[in-house]
Structure formats: structure tokens, C-alpha cells
Amino acid sequence: MSAENAALNAPSKGISPKQLFIGPWTIAVFTWRESIRKKTMVGFLILSLLVIFGATVMTSMMQQDTVGSAAAAGPLETQTKLIKDICVSAISIFGALITIFISASVVPSEIENKVIYTVLSKPVRRLQYLIGKFVGVQLTVLLNLVLMGGLFFIALWAREGMPPTLLLWAMLLMFFEFLILSAFTFAISCTSSSSVLPTIAGLFIYITGNLTEYLKDVSVRAEHGTSMEQLVGQLAQILYNILPNLQNFSLKNDIVQGMVNDPPPFEIIPNLIVYSLIFSAIGFCLSYVIFLRKEL
Amino acid sequence: MSTVIHTENLTKTYESAFGGQDVHALKSMSFEVQSGEIFGYLGPNGSGKTTTIKMLLGLIFPTSGKIRILGSEDITSNHIRMNIGYLPEGAYYPDFLRGEEILKYYGQLYGLSGADLRNRIDAVIDLVGMSHARKRLMRGYSKGMRQRIGLAQALISDPKILILDEPTTGLDPIARKEIRDILARLRDEGKTLMISSHELMEVELISNRISIIYEGDMKVHGTIDELLVDREVVVEVTDLDEPGAKQLEERGLTLEDAISGRARVRVPEGMDVYNAIEICRSAGARIGSIAPRRETLEELFVRVVGGASRAKAEKAA
Ligand SMILES: Nc1ncnc2c1ncn2[C@@H]1O[C@H](COP(=O)(O)OP(=O)(O)O)[C@@H](O)[C@H]1O
Ligand SMILES: [Mg+2]
């Protein structure tokens, strides 16, 4: 009798501990393979790679053309700053767009095409399914960051003549920033059977999460205003308190202003990582609560 | 014979979100599926078939009522899941994979791996007749091929029970016949099948027992032999002319498929067959054959569902 027949006839209702992890991992790998083929994601990735490529390689070529008229091209240092600014912004924005898009669509798209029925009717718990999907999203986000960051890393190294180690730290923090963004977008996507609403919500989280300092400013200034202004101020205060501060995760200024191999601000990195893990855990738990009794 | 699936007063009401009308998709449904049979779960679109099946699989939750599968009420336990194969209605399978890759994915979800997994994939691909296309991308598959892969994924764990939601809907006649043959073979291997359909011919050909549901209510329940009684006798006649045909109809017989002198004459219940033959003769027709005629499932269906919808219309009026 083969092993699977033995498993079928086994009276036990449990499942081996190994299977507890294999199920989610199988789903994660499948999700990853499917996600990296999504046209929207590939489109964003190609766009960002083009921006990085254009900003670094093209400007180097332009420099060679304009040798002798340095004034026209601007001082080399200013130009490097501009390139770093453009590329880090591109990675951050396109990375966020990809994160939002994938996080918002992995579950709703499976509901739409009914693949989810075939998966959840197998010995796969809803929690295992969610873990698999979520990990699959993170694998996709990671791959994108590696590709975009990798290209810029090489280009910057070639240009500056030294390994831009600070960029690696920036990418690490960006990953943890996207983890928060992903967890909440994912949770919202579990309420829906279409990815439109969760995508909009994800964009909202990303934009306001990057503007929390501004929200604080609004609430402080509104304290002595009219009642209408106070209401807006209170709303801003509430948003400030519940929204994660994503701006903290950005090392863009350090990269643009400093040397590419400066040490990162080591003292805040562990805090940021813990902060990210806590927020993403909350987001993921939220998705589980929503999904556990969801009618499919 | 033992009961494999048992439902008791299973009820599902979809609550509307914005104060609209609730949908009573299923009203106190009770039925049993016996081991080793093909159970046809029939009803027109919107009658509650998919709703029932989704509850059996724990994808949606009953408003009230009980479900027992293989004697257990814990229908989402892994033990039960290992023993149910499910083909959803109109599912799509990721088309960037090859036929065998998608089966590998589903097999892994059952915890299969290594040689066991490979053997099961070979077995189910062979069973559904897809060996020739197993290495092709799903993208290039026809509808019938996709459905066969869908059937294969339902079979990958070698389950005792198969629940198939409209397995032949939307397929061409040849693909249907192929699916039907596979299903009959599965029954012969001892599997229990529950098949939902609104296409009756399909199910009539292979089912042992059927239920007809309509608007969430069970209308008819029984074996095909019990339900489809021999209700009438049909006399095939030739050389029947216009006045003759008229004469037959005047005397209470019904003509079917009358073409160039040939016709089938239905003898209504209650009329003596000899009497009918005499009428045909006197009308100048020649008797070809005389045979009892069984009602088709389609006629039963129309009788049952048509009656129900007429009653509803009268109540509304
Ligand atoms: N998620 C849902 N929300 C509200 N109504 C639904 C939902 N799913 C199905 N229905 C309604 O329930 C009834 C039964 O549907 P269904 O079980 O899909 O029928 P069938 O499979 O027999 O065609 C239909 O009136 C359908 O419109
Ligand atoms: Mg249906």
C-alpha cells in the first residue's frame, strides 16, 4: 500500500507537522510564479529599470559629449545628487506601486477566477492559505527590489568607483516599509472580491503614510481654529496616530546628501524593523479575522 | 451501502447588504448520497445547486441545518478533505502552467510528494485521457481539455467522494460524452459521485438517483427507475393521410413527428391499447411497431418545475 493510501485510511484527523509548512510554502511559490507574470507588475518593473538605466547611463554619455563645457552640464557633484535622487525615488515609488498592486490582487483575483475554491477544498486551512499568499507577495516584492536595487547598485558603483553600501541599507528599510504597506493592503483585499478598492486603499495608505509629519502639523495648527478646522485637526490627529509613519524608512536624504558608502544610521534600524514587524503583524492578523469566516 | 453525504434541513439565506431583499437560496434541504452511486442534483439555473455544494465544502456557511460527510460533522477536517474531490463550476486554471504542473501543485496541497505524487499525476492524467497534452501549456487547451484537467485535480488524492458542479456545462457534445464516460468509469471503480446539472440528458444517462430542486426546495427525489415510469404506449404508423390524421386526433390520440405519412401516435394513459390500434386501422394507417414509452427526465423536470412555477404565478395573481 502506498503512502498516500495509508494517509487516506488513517483515522487521524491531524496532519503531519511537515505538511503544516509545506502547504503554505507551496502556495507561496505558486503565488510568486503567478505574480511575476502579471502584466502590470512587469510593466512597472520595466519602467523603473528604464528610469534607472536612463538616469545613470544616459547622463554618463552626455558628460562625455559635453567634455569641456562643464558649466552646461552643471558641476559633477550636483549631477550625481540628481541621479541619486531620481533613482532612489523611482525605486521607492515603483516598488510601492508593485507592492500595492500585487498585495491588492492576489486574493481577489483567485476569488474571481475561482481557483480559490479548488485550493480551499483541499486539506488547506484558511490561515495556511493566507500565509502562503502573503509570503508569495513578499517574495515578489523582494525580487523586484533586488532587480531594481541591483541595477542601481551596479550603475552607482561604476560611476562613483566605490561600492554604494548605503544603498543596500536603504533597500533593506524599503523592504520593511513595503511590508507594512503590503500587510494592510492585503487585509483590505480580504474584504473584497475585486482588487479595485484595495488598490485605492493601498495608495491612500502609502501617500498618507508618507505625509504623517504633515498630518501632525495640520492637527497642531488647527487647535485654535474654527470648529470646522478643529474637526479637520482631530481627523488629522486620528490618522496620525493610527497610520504607520513610512517616511522614517527612507534613507533617500542620506544617500543623496552623503557619500554612497557612508554608514547607515545604525541606531534606528533595529527599531524600524521591529516597528515594521509589529505593524505588519497587526495587518496580517486583521486579514485573518476578515478571511476566517468569509463567504466565498 | 452506507450514507456518504447527509444533509438535514440545510438552509442558506444570503443577506443583502443595503436593505434589499434577502435571497432564500436554499430552504430546509435534506438528502442523502449513498456510497458507490452517482447522485444527480438537478435544477434550473439559480435553484441553489452551487449554494448547496459550497456548503458541503465549507466555502460558505449554512444559515441553519446539518451536514454530515463520512459520518463526521467536522466537514473541514483534513481527514474529510482528503476524501473529497471537488470540481467547481466554471473554474479557471492558471494558464501559465503546463497541464502536469498544475496537477503537481494540487497534489502538493494534499501533502503528496516524490514518487507518490508522480504516480498519482500519471494515473489521473491517464484516467482523464490527457497524456498526449500533459506537457503543453494550459493556455493552449480547449474548454474540454481544461475541464478534464479540472477533473484530474479533483481526483489527485484518490478521494472516495467526488462533487462535481456542472461538469459538462458549456462543452461540445463529444467532450461531454468523454466526460460522461470518465464519470461512469469512476463509479465502476467504486467512487461516490454527486453531480449537479441543469442539463438533464447528461445526468439521466449515468445517474442512479436524482433530486430535482427548484428555488431552494426539493421537488422530486428517487431512483431514475422509480421516477421515470412507463407512462404511455407509442404506436408507430405509416401510410397516414391528412384526413386520417385528423380522425386520430379527434378520437383522443396525439401525433408526434408526423412527416410524409409516417407518425408516432401516443396512446394516453387510461386508453386501451387495442382500442387505439383499432382507431389507427380504421383511419387507414398501417401499424409499424407498438412499444411502451418511458417519460424522459426532461419531461419530468418540466412537469415538476413547470407545475411549481405555475403555482407560484397563480399565487402572485
Ligand atoms: N453570494 C450571493 N449573494 C446573494 N445571492 C446569491 C449569492 N450566490 C447565489 N445567490 C443566489 O442564490 C440563488 C441560488 O444560486 P446558486 O446556488 O448559484 O444556483 P444554481 O447553482 O442552482 O444555478 C440564486 O438566486 C442566486 O442569485
Ligand atoms: Mg450553479
Walk me through the structure.
- The complex is a heterodimer of chains A (296) and B (317).
- Helix content of chain A is 78%, strand content 0%.
- Chain A is mostly helical and 296 residues long.
- Chain A has one domain.
- Chain B is an alpha/beta fold and 317 residues long.
- Chain B has two domains: 3-227, Rossmann fold (3-Layer(aba) Sandwich); 230-294, 2-Layer Sandwich (Alpha-Beta Plaits), CATH 3.30.70.
- In chain B, helix 6 links the parallel strand 6 and strand 7.
- Chain B is globular, with a radius of gyration of 24 Å.
- The A-B interface holds A 2-5, 7-8, 10-16, 19, 22-23, 26-27, 30, 33-34, 37, 113-115, 117-124, 293, 295-296 and B 54, 57-61, 74, 77-79, 81-84, 86, 88-94, 96, 105-106, 108-113, 116, 119-120, 150, 153-154, 157-160.
- Adenosine-5'-diphosphate is lined by residues 14, 23, 25, 43, 45-51 of chain B.
- Give the number of DSSP strands of chain A: 0
End-to-end gap of chain A: 37 Å
Question: Which spans of chain B of ≥5 residues are poorly predicted at pLDDT below 50?
Answer: none
Helix content of chain A: over 70%
Query: Topology as H/E string of chain B?
Result: EEEHEHEHHHEHEHEEHEHEEHEH
Q: Hey, roughly how much beta strand do the residues of chain B contain?
A: 25-35%
Radius of gyration of CA atoms of chain A, rounded to a whole number: 23 Å
Number of DSSP E strands of chain B: 13
Can you identify the CATH class of the largest domain in chain B?
Alpha Beta
* Biggest pleated-sheet summary of chain A: none
Number of separate helices of chain B: 11
Give me the strand/helix succession of chain A: HHHHHHHHHHHHH
State the fourth-level CATH superfamily of the largest domain in chain B: P-loop containing nucleotide triphosphate hydrolases
User: In the CATH scheme, what's the topology name of the largest domain in chain B?
Assistant: Rossmann fold
Unreliable residue runs of chain A: 1-13
Query: Outline of chain A, from the CA principal axes?
Result: globular
User: How large a portion of the residues of chain A is in β-strands, by DSSP E?
Assistant: under 5%
Structural class of chain B: alpha/beta
Major β-sheet profile of chain B: 6 strands, mixed
**CATH architecture group name of the largest domain in chain B:** 3-Layer(aba) Sandwich
